[in-house]
Amino acid sequence: MASKVLVVGSGAIGLRTALELLRNKIPVVLRSAHHPLDKKTCSMGAGGLYMPYKCEDPRIDKWSSDTLDELLHLANDEKKKSLVEIVPTLYLMSKHGGMTTEDFKDFESKDYVGGTNIKTKFPKWTTDPRLSFQHLTIEMLEWQNHALKLKIPSAEILKKAGYNFGWLFNAPIVDAPNMLKDLLEEVYEYPVDINVDMGQGYANTDEMVADAKDHGCDALINCTGLGSMELCNDKDLIGGRGILLHYKRDCKRNFSDANMERDTAILTEDGPWGTSTDPVYIIPRGDVFVVGGTYYEGNTNDSLTDDERKRLIENAHLMGIDPSEAYVDEWAGFRPVRKTVRMEIDEETSASNGVKVIHSYGHGGSGWTTYVGAAKASLELLHSD
Ligand SMILES: Cc1cc2nc3c(=O)[nH]c(=O)nc-3n(C[C@H](O)[C@H](O)[C@H](O)COP(=O)(O)OP(=O)(O)OC[C@H]3O[C@@H](n4cnc5c(N)ncnc54)[C@H](O)[C@@H]3O)c2cc1C
Questions:
Q1: Which of 380, 30, 35, 62 is nearest to 223 (CA)?
Q2: Which domains are delineated in the chain?
Q3: Does ligand 1 have an atom closer than 6 angstroms to the CB of 208?
Q4: Residue nearest ligand 1's atom 13 by CA
Q5: Ligand 1: does its nearest atom lie under 6 Å from the Cβ of 33?
Q6: What is the pLDDT of residues 49-66, one digit of tens each?
Q7: Per-residue pLDDT at 106 exceeds 70
Q8: CA dist 339 to 49, 138, 229, 258, Å?
C-alpha cells in the first residue's frame, strides 16, 4: 500500500482520482501543467453529458455505472445539485438501431417496430433502469411528448428530415467548469501539496517519476489525458477534435409547439443534419447551451474556422435557438481517444524505479461519463500487488 502518491493531471480524471485517495486517507501531491479551468483542459470545455461516446473499452460499463451512482447522489444533494442536472436526452436516428454495430456488442432484445419483428442490439449502458431508456419511433415520441412537453422539433419536421427513431433517456449533465472548481475546492480541504498550474508540465515519464521520488511518493497516477501522447510517447493515443459554441441558457429557444417547456439535449450522428464526423448536438449545461460539433481524429487546430462557426450557428438554429440570439463563447478541445483506456500498472517503469506507476488516461469522449469509476479503479490498482 502506497504511503504517498503523486497524481498528475487536474482534469476530471486527475481531480476525482486525487479526491478518491484523499477520502481514503492517502496523502497526495497533485501536479498539472494547466489549471483545471484553463481552456486547454479538455474536461473544462466538455459537454458533460452522461453517455458513453468514442470509448470502446468494455470496462466502461462498470466505470460509468459507478459514475452514475455519484451523479444521481449529487443531483439530489441540496448543496451540490447545481453541479448536476438530470435532463431528458434525445438521440435521433434515421434507421432502426442507430449507432454502429461496434456499439452493440453486449445486449440483445426483440423489438416490435412498425409491424416487423426486428432483432436489435443496444449498448449495455442503456439497460440501466435509472436512465429510463426508451427506443422509440418518432410517432411514439410525438405521442409521449403530449405529456412530457420536451423542447424538441415536431414529428413532422423530424420525419421530413428523415429521422424515424430516437433514443430517449434521462441523462445527468455535469456543469463541467463548476464541477472542476468544486472538486478542486474539496482537494484543498486536505493538507495537500498542490501545483496545478506548472505551465510546462513533465517532459517524459522519467521526469514524472523523479518528481514523485523527490516528494517522497512511492506511487504515481498519471491522469494526463491527451498529454500522455508526448509524456509516454503513446502512439495509440490520438486527439479527437471537438468544437462548440455557447449560448446563454436563458436565450430564446423553442420550436413551433407552444406547449414545450423542458430543456432537452438533442444529438444526432445521422444525416441529413449530422454525420459521424460532424455530429449535431445541443446540451443544456449549467448556465449555457453548448452546441456542437465535430469528431476529427488527428486534427490539431485549436481554434474554429469561419466555416465551422457558420455550421455551428446553423446547428444552433436546427436545435431551436432563435436566429436573433448570438453565441457568447466558443471552444475547441481534443478528446483523448485510445482503442482501450490505459488503466493499468506500468510494470516495467515501476520495477526499474521503485515507484508504482499507474496510468489512467484515454477516456475518449466519455471522461465525464466515467470519471468516478476511473478514480475507483485507480485506487484498486494502488491496493493491488
Ligand atoms: C467537444 C468535446 C465535448 C465533450 N463532451 C463530453 C460529454 O458530453 N461527456 C463526456 O463524458 N465527455 C465529453 N468529452 C470528453 C471529455 O472531455 C474527456 O474525456 C475528459 O475531459 C478527459 O479528462 P482527463 O482528465 O483525462 O483530461 P484533461 O481534462 O485534458 O486533463 C488532463 C490534465 O493533465 C495535465 N497534463 C497534460 N500533460 C501534462 C504533462 N506533461 N505534465 C503535467 N500535466 C499534464 C493537464 O494540464 C490537465 O490538467 C468531450 C470532449 C470534447 C473535446
A1: 30
A2: 5-48+176-237+339-383 (3.40.50.720), 86-172+238-337 (3.30.9.10)
A3: no
A4: 365
A5: yes
A6: 999 999 989 999 999 999
A7: no
A8: 21, 34, 14, 45
